[in-house]
Specification:
Structural class: mainly alpha
Number of helices: 9
Mean pLDDT: 90
Helix content: over 70%
CATH superfamily of the domain at 60-190: Tetracycline Repressor, domain 2
Strand content: under 5%
Number of strands: 0
CATH architecture of the domain at 60-190: Orthogonal Bundle
Order of helices and strands: HHHHHHHHH
């Protein structure tokens, strides 16, 4: 009979996610993960199979906690430009408030792991595609309501906006200056008028 886990898996994945975000995959050892989660490495291996398994679980949790709410917000808004701006300003605010200057886990995974691990790359594609799809839907609906000019491609605008969002995260990790980041937001928003 298999032993039941005697720890909170979500809490362990949350602690690992925060550690991976702060130190990156390569900079995080199993000892670091054991210390952060308060679990022995044997328990971590039993639950997640490997450091890679825990990293994939952390990416899934990050998507659930940070990317999914953005797509939900985009799909709930009536005024497309206002809700898109709200998403961008929210990202800028998160960047500026992050005193530890942690990069987005998605951006970190893209630069550190996606080229080496197809499972990581697939998770990043799925996250990006869900955000692009939400932006596409928001823009296409707004075009039907004459809120955004109909002569623009919703797919191209969605791709550009996702690229800009991720670019903000990268630049924010380098220099989290709100005024500078908001200049990019303003330029992106002008593409919708």
């Amino acid at each position: 009979m298999a032993r039941q886990r005697e720890f909170d898996t979500d809490a362990a994945v949350t602690a690992a996610m925060e550690l991976f975000q702060r130190k990156g995959y390569e900079g995080t050892s199993m000892r670091d993960l054991a210390d952060a989660t308060g679990l022995g490495s044997g328990s971590l291996y039993a639950a997640f199979g490997s450091k890679d398994g825990l990293y994939l679980a952390a990416l899934d949790l990050y998507r659930q906690r940070y990317a999914a709410p953005l797509t939900d917000l985009l799909r709930a808004g009536q005024d497309a430009r206002a809700v898109i701006r709200e998403v961008f300003v929210g990202v800028v605010d998160d960047i500026v408030q992050d005193g530890r200057r942690q990069a987005c886990l998605i951006v970190g995974a893209a630069t550190e792991r996606a080229h080496r691990d197809g499972r990581v790359a697939e998770r990043l594609r799925a996250t990006t595609q869900s955000l692009e799809a939400a932006l596409f839907d928001t823009i296409a609906e707004a075009q039907l309501r004459n809120q955004i000019p109909a002569d623009r491609s919703p797919a191209e605008l969605a791709t550009f906006l996702v690229t800009t969002l991720q670019g903000l995260r990268v630049m924010g990790a380098v220099s989290p200056c709100r005024a500078t980041l908001m200049l990019s937001v303003d330029v992106a928003m002008r593409c919708l008028t």
